[in-house]
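Re: [ENG-882] Designed sequences occasionally contain unexpected residues at chain ends

Forwarding the minimal case from QA. Structure tokens:
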């Protein structure tokens, strides 16, 4: 089991999953289509949360890894970002969710 976990950790490092996910989150919140003003999103902090492996899924034909970052504003978690990539590090999907209702209404 330790060898499997070490190999998965190497896979995440070699494919730069954390840095790619961080870039994806920052790109998403800085886009014109994002509904929260850039003066607010520039204050976002991104805290790595987890890497999760899915090796069998009803709708996806390939195994994938989800890399999660919590989004923090003024020391309060306001949402999360998930970067979904195949085992080679190629992005399959991403998702940004703002969970703070007040922030959504700004």
């Amino acid at each position: 089991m330790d060898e499997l976990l070490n190999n998965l950790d190497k896979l995440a490092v070699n494919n730069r999953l954390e840095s790619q996910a961080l870039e994806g989150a920052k790109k998403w919140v800085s886009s014109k289509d994002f509904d929260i003003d850039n003066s607010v999103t520039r204050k976002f902090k991104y805290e790595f949360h987890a890497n999760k492996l899915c090796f069998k899924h009803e709708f996806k034909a390939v195994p994938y890894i989800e890399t999660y970052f919590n989004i923090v504003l003024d020391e309060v978690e306001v949402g999360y970002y998930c970067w979904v990539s195949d085992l080679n590090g190629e992005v399959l999907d991403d998702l940004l969710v703002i969970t703070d209702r007040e922030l959504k209404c700004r």
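QA comment: On inspection the terminal residues look reasonable. The first helix runs from residue 2 to 14. Proposing we downgrade this to a documentation issue.
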